Amino acid sequence: MGGERIAIVGAGCTGLRLRTPEASFRELVFQAAQKAYADAGVRPQEVSAFVSVAENYNEGAAIADEYVPDQLGAVLKPVHAVAGDGITGLASLVMQLETGQLDIGVIEGHSKASNVLHPAHILALALDPIYTRPLRFHPHYVAGMEMRAFLAATGNTQEQAALAAAQNRKNALANPLAAYGASLTVEQVLASPPEAEPLKLGDIAPPADGAVVLVLARESMLGTLKGKPVFINGIGWSQDTPNIEDRELHRAAYAEQAAQMAYRMAGISDAASQIDLAEVDDTFSYKELQHLEALGLAPPGQAGNLLEAGVFSPQGRLPVNVSGGHLGCGYAHEMSSLRSVLEVVLQLRGEAGARQLPGARVGLAQSWRGIPTASGAVVVLGRE
Amino acid sequence: MEQKIRGGTSLTDHALTAGEALLTHWQVKSDYRWDAGAALSRFLEGLKHGQILGIHCPQCRRTLVPPRVFCERCFRPLEQWVPLYDTGKLITYSVSYVNWDATRRRTPEIPAVIELDGASPGIGILHLLGEAGGSLSEITARLGAGTPVQAVWKPAAEREGAITDIRYFRPVGG
To answer: Which residue of chain A comes nearest to B72, CA vs CA?
Structure first.
């Protein structure tokens, strides 16, 4: 990157669960923030920039970010709201620190998905009100159409997508933060009820509640902090057209663009050989395969075959979603991809417990903003 | 507005009601079951029993209401619950003459911030004032910063653990 390097120096997470009736979203974020600040060895008074990622309709409150400062210790501090996924928010915080005007920054993401009683209706509000919404399909059809186009164009199969779901649910069994660990077979995923064919219920990451807080600092601050740094070596983001019918539905062009931007910054020329582990968006099972190809972690059309060959398993050459991904941990709105970043941070620090991968030095986390968007971000993280 | 701009045709009410213009409706189904959390749940439970609960921060020595499980200034967990009085004094108020549909109210509503006795200076709860007069001149003559007020509660059987378990605050004395 251009100026001084930026590192993640603290991380805190409540863990993800189906429901969290004992705590308000404020109380969840406070728990995660306490952990992150203790981890970094920083007091919130020393933090100069805060970023919050939240969508108003998921919160049930307009200007949801205005409800954020108290539980972060950010009262009367600069708080920047990013209406985007977690890694897009992270990019914003990196840029703020890159200015050199701010030393330590914090980003929060949280989910109270369990409080949203009609999530499909909220999702439908993202569709164009004049020419898309009046057709009144359940919004998952967008994923169903994408999945069909992707499988047809690349030769990946429905069984291979189901294997991604089964593997991630299984990986989640070794992650105490995950909500949906399970021993599932490919057959069980394929036998789950059809949602928007070829997409089945088992292909969809189920919702979860939780909160993640990350603390970032400029490299020159590291001497004063106790947190073990993980460097942000590259970050990128991209947004495709909102017109569903005009996009190349088989491709994740946004992920290709975001990856190229991040790789350029990080000096990555051959992602598949230079990256040791990846947390890739798997909000829907086929998305993991599509994203792996877009990120250059699998050759075109080969993601499913490599998955079957065990390349992306925790014991494989390039472990993918060793945390369990969103399918295994739970889909937690904008917080989801901050949880992906958290996993890479834990792995690079050697603090991932039972699922620790040996010798990981460079990791990638990738986000997708979800239906009906074609936007997302990529971050490359390194131990040095 | 019946003005033509650059040759366009402006929409009339008739065009909309007669179906000459496309009018698309969408019923938003945005229902939430918010988890109130540890602090507000206990606060609301207190209201059901006719009690207003605050919480004390031993570091900045403020007693806060509505209560929260952390002090937003000191960033530390709080656990020292304090029962407050249902009396206090006005910090500020407004006299509201508009309904939700922008029609005018004959009798105004008076939203107010009240510093409860037992809470720290400047720590107020937002509520309504009642029994404070019908006209603007009566109200402004009666109320000012520092005017003592007291809660008027719903009967115990009607309380449900909500901020509306207090009907309103009324000025006392003076």
So the answer is: A70
Query: Any idea of the CA torsion for A352, A353, A355, A356, to the nearest 10 degrees?
Result: 60
Closest by CA to A207, choosing from A90, A116, A337, is A116
Cβ of B35 within 8 Å of Cβ of A30? The answer is: no
> What is the extent of the structural domain holding B114?
37-171
Cβ B35–A21 below 8 Å, yes or no? yes
For A176-202, what is each residue's pLDDT tens digit? 999 999 999 999 999 999 999 999 999
User: Do A173 and A268 fall within a single domain?
Assistant: yes
Same domain, A56 and A113: yes
Residue A80 lies in domain: 6-117+208-230
Distance of CA A342 to the CA centre of its chain: 9
Q: What's the token pair of residue A171?
A: 């990986």
Find, in chain B, the residue whose alpha carbon is nearest to that of A57: B30
Does residue A1 register a pLDDT over 60?
no
Amino acid at A277: L
Range list of β-strands (E), A62-103: 79-82
* Pairing of β B104-116 and β B96-98: antiparallel
Q: How confident is the model at residue A214 (pLDDT cuts 50, 70, 90)?
A: very high
Examine residue B27 and state whether it is found in any structural domain, yes or no: no
In a domain, A1, yes or no: no
Q: Do B73 and A75 touch (CB under 8 A)?
A: yes
Residue B113 vs residues A17, A312, B44, B130, B137: alpha-carbon distances, Å:
38, 59, 18, 13, 20
Here the CATH number for the domain that contains residue A37 is 3.40.47.10
Report the run of H or E that residue A257 belongs to, with start and end: helix A253-266
Interface test with B, best of A18, A19, A27 (most B CBs within 10 A): A27
**B72 with A70: Cβ contact below 8 A:** yes
Quick check: is B31 in a domain?
no
Q: Which of A26, A75, A117 sits opposite B32 (nearest CB)?
A: A117
Residues in chain A: 384
Under DSSP, the state recorded for A250 is T
- Residue A242 shares a structural domain with residue A178: yes
Task: Note the pLDDT tens digit of each residue in A254-297.
Answer: 999 999 999 999 999 999 999 999 999 999 999 999 999 999 99
